[in-house]
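Protein details
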Amino acid sequence: MNNGLKLLAVSFLCAFSFTASAQKWEHLADTPQMGWNSWNKFQGNIDEEIIKTIADAMVSTGLRDAGYVYINMDDCWHGERDENGFIQANSKRFPHGIKWLADYVHSKGLKLGIYSDCGTKTCAGMPGSLGHEYQDALQYARWGIDYLKEDWCNTININAKGAYQLMSDALRAAGRPILHSMCEWGDNMPWRWARNIGHSWRIGPDIWCSFDSLRVFPTYTQYSVMNCIAKNDTLRQYAGKGHWNDPDMLEVGNGMKNSEDRAHFAMWCMMASPLIIGNDIRSMSNETKAILMNKEMIAVNQDKMGIQGYHHSDVNGLQIWFKPLENGDWAITILNPTQKSLTYGINWQNFNFKDTQVSDKSTDFDKIEYHVRNLWLHKSEGKTSKENRVERTITVPSHDVISYRLIK
């Protein structure tokens, strides 16, 4: 028996050692995953040199130390399957192979992610994983892969829950902890059934680089930042430690206004969304770097309570969002989705509420004076007041945010 057939036999033996109800690898995403993905900037034009130099930049820019540890190759890394059905990398684009690349990425203190699809082919027409789930999982484990993004193209007459459960079982059987990012676009409402199958699930269509414009094609649609926020607004009860609603990757640094990038990033932090960078970090501006490396906002996203933010109210065109944090703290972001600057007088007594949906935490502004920390200006701004009065007046520019941490 040749080595390929031996590996195939091992994969099937591994498969039978797990039941159909085997669960995902635990504790890989107790907080939302952070990293970089190639698609938003490079689409299918990826190769070994791009991934290698991105890994270098993750270290030199300080992004790794800020928490961004995954480098994820999206569609088009693939070659063909070998005579035994095992997927291979495109040898022209990845001449040293994926194992060599994973070793390089790991040497930088980072982790390598890869992409596949539940169907017969990927969205770009590369070999999909249908019928090869255990082989692919075994190959990824042998290569040293740490993250799998699994797409949903070319899946006619396939049951979504069954397909993703199959790959989840295969990843466990392969023996290497691999984070499972489900990219099913929300078609089959994965938030209702995927908690024990994947670590995150896409809630809607692909994002594109627009703050508030829906992009419609004959056969598919792309969401803007605001479309993603609106969809995720209805799903907070399904998110938590190890299972996150994913409104898609970040478009920060890809062409929107600086204010829009800031609002985009702030809201992904408030919504406890995966923070997967999608720009070319090798040449990003200082403004983009400052947004992506805002450690105070990242701390809101990575808070160990793992609670998705709450859209409390709309006031005079502004959206008011709260997120309960550790140690009795709260984050609040005031989002201006309109085309003009808006001024608002904050009376903290208007925000006395209990988060009965998820956390059972109360703001108790009538009982507690919180220290107010501006998370974009990085400075303290006094305390909240227990009195029923306007305590501060703010102006939020168009397509921008003001974010505070309220420290108990």
The CA atoms of residues 220 and 312 lie 32 Å apart. The first helix runs from residue 3 to 16. The chain has two domains: 3-301, 310-407.
